[in-house]
Amino acid sequence: MTRTLIVIGHGMVGHRLVEAVRQRDATDAWRVVVFGEEPRPAYDRVALSSYLDGKSAEDLSLTGQDVWDDPMVELRLGTAVTGVDRAARTVSTADGSVVGYDALVLATGSRPFVPPVPGRDLDGCFVYRTIEDLDAIRAAATEGAPGVVIGGGLLGLEAAGALRRLGMRTHVVEMAPRLMPLQVDEGGGQVLGRLVTDLGLTVHCGAAIESIDGDDRVRSIALADGTVLDAELVVFSAGVRPRDELAEVAGLERGERGGFLVDEFCRTSDERVWAVGECAAVQGRCYGLVAPGYSMAEGVAEQLLELGDGTFPGADLSTKLKLLGVDVASFGDAHGQTPGALEVVYANNAAGTYAKLVLSDDARVLLGGVLVGDAGAYSVLRPLVGRELPAPPEQLLLPAGSGVDAGALPADATVCSCNNVTKQDITTAITEQQLTDVPGVKACTRAGTSCGSCVPMLKTLLGECGVVTSTALCEHFPQSRSELFEIVRATGTRSFSELIGKHGTGRGCDICKPVVASILASLGHGHVLDGEQAGLQDTNDRFLANLQRNGTYSVVPRVPGGEITPDKLIVLGEVAKEFGLYTKITGGQRIDLFGARVEQLPRIWRRLVDAGFESGHAYGKALRTVKSCVGNDWCRYGVQDSVSMAIRLELRYRGLRAPHKVKAGVSGCARECAEARGKDFGVIATEKGWNLYVGGNGGFTPRHAELLAADLDDERLVQLIDRFLMFYVRTADRLQRTSAWLESLDGGLDHLREVVVEDSLGIAAELEEAMQRHVDSYTDEWAGVLADPDKLARFVSFVNAPEAPDPTIRFVEERGQIRPGPVALPMPAFATQEVSS
Amino acid sequence: MTWQPICALEMLPPEYGVPALVQDRPVAVFRTHDDELYAVGNVDPFCGAGVISRGIVGDRGGEPTVASPMLKQVFSLRTGQCLDDPSARLPVYPVRRRPDGVVEVALP
């Protein structure tokens, strides 16, 4: 018999409850009716600020079509619940409907707290909670004008970051004597204040608001000490209050400080009514973080489905955040409230870092800590809370927690708190599944897949398990590809022999030679077939065409952006006909000509080069195609000229050698006809400029590109792509796609954005220069071979019979064109065949 | 044993290979960095295509090698043995350099 579960509230926690029930409810025991007050389904409120970086409401959404398609779920959005009749077991809504329930879960969340100061209702005053709030703030923000955030806690700093991004002169007013008073201690707060001030924000701590003043809209804010701050916009982020209005209506008890009072099972005094998330006062205490809310939702789902006891285990309030680009972490008893607790502090004012450990009275057990400026040690320290210290505290506090190794962690210590994965879970997976790298550990255990702060620890654990994550390129070079790149760049090395003589052993192989060839080519060291370089190239680069399964090659001329004249189209047809080639339109808007023999390649190129074509690099680990839609010249919907941009980008980056082939796309509007988000870098036009996405494609494991920067003009777009590509070319591993590279970066997309957009490493100018050198030195490789008799002499079927066709090549016909035929020669000797003959 | 001239040594740069037709057999001739010459069958036993001469020359633990450009199996240039799969081997041919600098291959 199907029963009805009503969930009031479709925020992150309400949605998690629905998911948890639906995933485990094998017998469809519960029909779920969800009431949401907001007009849209649940979205990632924790990532709300990224909405201002160009993420769309859709990007943030937590629901997919499956929720709408699920016949057991009814989502009623824009519907406020006004009444609960516990006796009749019904809820009633503002639009007058009444729905009966067998179980009711309150997930109404919380509302921003607006302190009762005069003037708080003036135009220009906002809260920071919903997508609609951000739309309103964005519309009201004026670049260069003063904006004030009231509240210097976690959310206040988020809001301050948002105003700063909108170009406002931003002030933060905090009543406590330091920023983030709940999470960090005085010393940490001071360092944090200094780092935030360095970013151009003005911080007023220990300051109370007297009034907000203006005529029809906000003009200034008066502080209790007499200071008056100009303000054209005010954002209240002074904490949240549980949304517990229904307690009265339903006759349910409240906690002392608000919230629906529930027991450790999240159950109210009515056994059919639960409360979860920020509106729940679990044994009197409200939690303003999403993780405890999720664990409450999971627990209630277990109870509803009778799968476990579903107790709320209590919350780990540890946090690690990057606010305004500043690392802040706090864990365990961060404020040293345990009786007799001792503190060890390491502060480095010069570097802007602060670290504190809270220890038991005998200085042996770690109770908690605070890290500001550099939270690198967080992933090691947090799992150690409640355990004996594995090393002297001062050693643990030194930068990056260099003193501790993973061996110090007990097996049951939680390494990934987002997904509740212990050290033991990880080491077992590594040994039993024979995992050899971090992506493998992520896939098998889910560790490191949410916030990513434990990724460095996963690397260490792989090492602990004896997995040698050697970065050596091959037996000839102990260095990684990126190290070799830096050696070649720094020493000006121009040949493989010189490099292996000084930095390697032996004579190289098919692994290291193409890598070095690619590095030399990236740095613009001449034609790829010059001198010794010819012997380093993989066959595709050696013959500047793409080796196919029967030993013939395919030839792909460049068609920038996919735009081609009728005359050129005719030439391609004529060439294909003359040489009897198979033709196919590729996925990247090219025409591929297959079946060319080595000795035919120069003659085919001659025809193409004479007709104005050049090499399309379809053979290389290089930039391949920049796909485009038709753009605003022809398309009714296009908002920018995607064709011109695609051509510009393709011509700019043509010939660029990279660790893996690179594809790109430019779409003229959000309809995405060029499928730009499925590319290594993708550009999508909006009315406000270009949005740049990176790290898509992914090969075997397809991946959508992620937004790196939004609303760019042409010049800024090209500048950021220059930096992105060159940074990738320099630092990626051999054959590592941009997607895997991005995943392997410590700090992921955020780190990439810091380096590429904000220039945190100070290398942006250098990357741009390197790209400019590439652009300036580009020449067509096909034309280069045609002009050089020595290079041409290598394009023979047999050196002693240059025009004799290779007898292993045979074609048959299919659908009016050639395809490779069965192998003509008897297969050469396999050792086993010799034995039997 | 009849020796057949293939090409002048200059046609064969160090750590490079060339394809040749010796009677009717496709042969790949290589010159290593220390000026040693090697000749093996040009047909890749894993795919049947005549591509071995286009492979990258190098060494594995000191053994001179060539890697097939098709699916990258590595073969010893001295013995023709595939070092990645013991069941496959390339035929090996005698090769020498005449005093006038011409490279010759013999069929046994």
Automatic annotation (TrEMBL), chain A:
| Residue ranges annotated for the FAD/NAD(P)-binding domain, each copy included | 5-283
Per its record, what are the GO molecular function terms? 2 iron, 2 sulfur cluster binding; 4 iron, 4 sulfur cluster binding; flavin adenine dinucleotide binding; heme binding; metal ion binding; NADP binding; nitrite reductase activity; sulfite reductase (ferredoxin) activity
Q: Cite the Nitrite/Sulfite reductase ferredoxin-like domain residue spans from the record.
A: 548-609
Q: Which residues form the NADH-rubredoxin oxidoreductase C-terminal domain?
A: 318-382
Q: Which cofactor does it need?
A: FAD; [2Fe-2S] cluster; [4Fe-4S] cluster; siroheme
Its pathway is: Nitrogen metabolism; nitrate reduction (assimilation)
Tell me where on the tree of life, at the top rank, the source sits.
Bacteria
Kindly list the biological process annotations in GO that this record carries.
Answer: energy derivation by oxidation of organic compounds; nitrate assimilation
Establish whether keyword Transmembrane helix is in the entry: no
> Where along the chain is [4Fe-4S] cluster bound?
629, 635, 669, 673
| Cofactor binding note from Swiss-Prot or TrEMBL | Binds 1 [4Fe-4S] cluster per subunit. Binds 1 siroheme per subunit.
- Asked if the Swiss-Prot or TrEMBL record annotates the protein with the keyword DNA-binding, the reply is no
| Reaction(s) catalysed (UniProt annotation) | hydrogen sulfide + 6 oxidized [2Fe-2S]-[ferredoxin] + 3 H2O = sulfite + 6 reduced [2Fe-2S]-[ferredoxin] + 7 H(+)
Q: Locate the BFD-like [2Fe-2S]-binding domain: which residues?
A: 415-463
- The residues that hold siroheme are 673
Q: Which residues form the Nitrite/sulphite reductase 4Fe-4S domain?
A: 620-759
Q: How does it assemble?
A: Homodimer which associates with NirD.
Q: Main role?
A: Catalyzes the reduction of sulfite to sulfide, a step in the biosynthesis of sulfur-containing amino acids and cofactors.
Q: Which family does it belong to?
A: Belongs to the nitrite and sulfite reductase 4Fe-4S domain family.
Q: What is this protein called?
A: assimilatory sulfite reductase (ferredoxin)
Species in which this protein is naturally found? Saccharopolyspora hordei
List the lineage, top down: Bacteria, Bacillati, Actinomycetota, Actinomycetes, Pseudonocardiales
TrEMBL record, chain B:
Any one GO molecular-function label of the UniProt entry = 2 iron, 2 sulfur cluster binding
The yes or no answer to whether the keyword Transmembrane is present is no
Known EC number(s)?
1.7.1.15
- Domain of life, per lineage: Bacteria
Give UniProt keywords alphabetically: 2Fe-2S, Iron, Iron-sulfur, Metal-binding, Nitrate assimilation, Oxidoreductase
Entry-linked InterPro entries: NirD (IPR017881), Rieske-like_NirD (IPR012748), Rieske_2Fe-2S (IPR017941), Rieske_2Fe-2S_sf (IPR036922)
Q: Name one GO biological process term.
A: nitrate assimilation
Residues forming the Rieske domain are 3-104
Protein name, per record: Nitrite reductase (NADH) small subunit
| Organism encoding this protein | Saccharopolyspora hordei
Q: What is the lineage of its organism?
A: Bacteria, Bacillati, Actinomycetota, Actinomycetes, Pseudonocardiales
